Amino acid sequence: MITCCIGIMAYNEESNIGSLLEALRKQRLSQVFIDKIIVVASGCTDRTEEIVRRFCLKDLRIKLLTEEKRQGKAAAINLFLKTVKNCPHICVLESADTLPLKDTVEKLVAPFCNPKIGMTGAHPIPVNQPDKFMGFVVHLLWELHHRIALRVPKMGEMIAFQNVVREIPGDTAVDEVSIA
């Protein structure tokens, strides 16, 4: 069994954070155990923190860390890394505006059975209908993103990595590059 801790960096995500936490709670897992789900709410001015607190009462694995002032994604990731530094787990970072399929965490973390694996990444799939104009544009954008990522890895929407990273540079714009 591989244990992981999930970190979600959130800024004003009241419209999605509940669905994301529910999707993570309902993951189908056979080789993986989710030990903690840590939401770092960074300078939120909406109901994000309130929604996360409700989930904390439902599921003891869910924790809320609050940054009063928004300091950027790198600072939120560093707070998460500091919180899990003594855990011999796999770390998973997931963007707060995504929704994983029921087996996403399993597929992302299971490869770490091989000790040579250091990092894995997910492929975002839009939920928009591709037969509508905006849905077509969104699908095209993410398909291009995926094709580029196959050549130059860019998978920051959801990544997993060995818990050996202590901190990333505060001014980084691409967190997975700093982690890799």
TrEMBL record:
This is Glycosyltransferase 2-like domain-containing protein. SUPFAM superfamilies: Nucleotide-diphospho-sugar transferases. Keywords: Glycosyltransferase, Transferase. It holds the Pfam family Glycos_transf_2. Residues 6-132 form the Glycosyltransferase 2-like domain. It comes from marine sediment metagenome. One of its GO terms (molecular function) is glycosyltransferase activity.
